[in-house]
Design brief:
heterodimer; A: globular; B: about 325 residues; mainly alpha; two-stranded antiparallel sheet; globular
């Protein structure tokens, strides 16, 4: 890529921060949809906790995105006043919850990636990014421990639980390739040592996921096809519905303070 | 109050001279303010009544997640969403402590869950009302948690040790819940005309049901008298309702909202407000299953349980496999 095509550094950082903050926002929202409906009380508590962590991280990432943008937009303005095409989350985050197995598998595949990303971000050349990552990494270490443990127990549980976990894995696998696909924004972030190059996370992620899935007696799908587009604003039909729900009050009463 | 109209099986409050020596010694310990612990002797009726009361309380925490969960995905800011998530997580945690307290009396969580799902055990009537606007989330925290605190603060001194200790922890969190509810109401009441209207409408709809949370007058109730003798109920329903009204009326005034009761007046002589009784026919209809959300609330819980059966079975199967694998090398070595 020639220098002339490179995005302006602040613009690139803003976009890159949206990609992280929007992913935690949308996944946190999805997880919060389970509230009061999970299979066992301990899971209601755990899911609320995971959602709460993700929303808390969103406040930090989108807060910084707004600050970097310098246009006076707060984290709330970014979360509640953008339409789907302006969202930069990974597609996997907006996948519908499905059954509890689908929700867990989505969480595990994301957590394994999220953990690696945050570990690398703690060494970011931008101290603001490093500080948020250090805080979030403590929380996500717990998310990963929990989701990996449950994937193993349910994969290696009953025939029914194994079937459900394998179905979830087969369906979600094609949404994991997007974690590692880079564009000009990612290149700029990697060149400035602000964020790791997405492709550099792939081997470690695959090693972690393969080990856990093997312990869970689940079969890693052979397909390498990757759905993509979320990180540049091209989403599934699901995101619009999610936003219609999430943004309802801010859109219906635009002058109100809550 | 999350436990309403708890039956004791009593026909009258037993006097000391009617009691067996064991029972008398038990009652005397309670009278001295001692705590009863799980492995100690207790009358069957005390055990059964506590199971009903703690079970109903636990179920209320669990079902109570639903009306608030209804607004988690639509919370208007990230901060409000985070606070509401934390609150609903607390409620689930309260359910967990309470089921654990009930387990010390010899009933499992699964048995209690089955009784809830079959309709044999109740949860608080308040959770059969819908949350229609964001202001309802404020009203639930302010009024519903406010009413719950009225009952739960004295229960920190209840005679059954595990229940009293659960209540101490729960009360700390409930007072935070009430403050967050009032904080939402403040923002709404100071907000746009639409927000103010939502706040007033929420108060209009939740006032009566909140007063009903204390249950009908139990001046004549043998069950309440027996529960009070056992110190698993500390105040009468009317006392707590009065205290709640006296606390809440000035708060409503501060918000600039009108309590929907034209007869509401300060009574200097009794040092409290006079107020209208809520509509008890509505209360009994809700208890009979005819509240606006009874069917939805219970069916949501039953669905969650049934849809999650494979999950629970999977975890059990895995732990059995792990145990078998651990045992296998030992068996082979022998």
């Amino acid at each position: 890529m020639s220098a002339a095509q490179a995005p302006a550094p602040q613009q690139a950082l803003h976009e890159a921060l949206l990609r992280i903050g929007d992913s935690t926002l949308i996944l946190g929202h999805r997880v919060s949809e389970w509230c009061g409906h999970s299979p066992v009380l301990e899971e209601d508590i755990a899911l609320a906790n995971v959602a709460l962590d993700l929303i808390g991280q969103t406040q930090l990432w989108l807060g910084l995105a707004g600050e970097v943008e310098g246009a006076g937009r707060s984290a709330d303005a970014l979360a509640y006043r953008r339409d789907a095409a302006q969202f930069r989350n990974l597609l996997i985050a907006e996948r519908p919850n499905g059954d509890f197995g689908m929700t867990l598998m989505r969480q595990y595949l994301f957590d394994a990636y999220h953990m690696l990303l945050l570990q690398r971000l703690t060494a970011s050349s931008d101290p603001r990014v490093a500080a948020i990552a250090a805080k979030a990494a403590k929380e996500v270490a717990y998310h990963l421990e929990r989701s990996a443990d449950l994937v193993v127990r349910l994969g290696d549980g009953t025939e029914e639980s194994r079937r459900r976990m394998q179905t979830a894995l087969d369906e979600l696998w094609s949404y994991t390739g997007e974690f590692f696909i880079a564009d000009a924004i990612d290149e700029a972030m990697a060149d400035a040592a602000i964020m790791p190059h997405p492709a550099s996370l792939k081997d470690a992620w695959l090693a972690e996921v393969s080990a856990t899935l093997s312990e869970a007696t689940l079969k890693v799908p052979a397909s390498t096809y990757a759905h993509k587009g979320g990180r540049r604003g091209v989403h599934s039909e699901h995101l619009g519905h999610l936003l219609a729900n999430m943004q309802f009050l801010q859109r219906a009463y635009p002058t109100a303070v809550w | 109050m999350y436990a309403q109209m708890v039956q004791t099986d009593a026909t009258h409050v037993r006097k000391l001279d009617e009691m067996s020596p064991e029972e008398r010694a038990f009652q005397e310990r309670i009278d001295r303010g001692e705590k009863i612990e799980p492995k100690e002797w207790m009358p069957d009726a005390y055990r059964k009544t506590l199971i009903r009361q703690i079970g109903q309380h636990a179920h209320s925490e669990i079902v109570g997640q639903l009306p608030e969960g209804n607004w988690i995905t639509r919370a208007p800011t990230l901060e409000r969403k985070a606070i509401l998530l934390a609150k609903v997580q607390d409620e689930a945690g309260h359910g967990l402590y309470l089921y654990c307290a009930a387990e010390t009396l010899g009933v499992s969580r699964d048995e209690l869950t089955e009784l809830l799902h079959s309709g044999k055990m109740k949860y608080s009537s308040i959770f059969n009302y819908p949350t229609l606007t964001w202001a309802d989330i404020g009203a639930v925290g302010w009024l519903v948690d406010g009413a719950a605190i009225m009952n739960q603060v004295p229960l920190q001194r209840t005679s059954y040790g595990p229940y009293a200790r659960a209540m101490i922890r729960i009360c700390k969190e409930e007072s935070f819940h009430q403050r967050q509810g009032y904080d939402i109401m403040m923002k709404m009441a100071q907000g746009t005309p639409e927000q103010k209207a939502m706040a007033q409408d929420a108060l209009n709809r939740f006032w009566g049901p909140a007063l009903m949370m204390f249950g009908p007058s139990d001046k004549e109730s043998v069950h309440s008298a027996q529960s009070m003798a056992w110190k698993i109920k500390i105040n009468s329903n009317d006392e707590l309702r009065q205290k709640f009204v006296d606390q809440t009326v000035p708060q409503a005034k501060y918000l600039g909202l009108t309590v929907p009761d034209e007869t509401l007046r300060w009574n200097e002589e009794k040092g409290g407000h006079d107020f209208a009784e809520p509509d008890w026919s509505e209360f009994f209809e809700v208890l009979a299953g005819n509240g606006p959300c009874n069917r939805e609330r219970l069916s949501a819980r039953v669905k969650a349980w049934e849809d999650g059966a494979w999950f629970r079975e999977g975890l059990v199967a895995h732990s059995e496999k792990v145990a078998a694998r651990r045992a296998a090398p030992r068996a082979a070595a022998e």
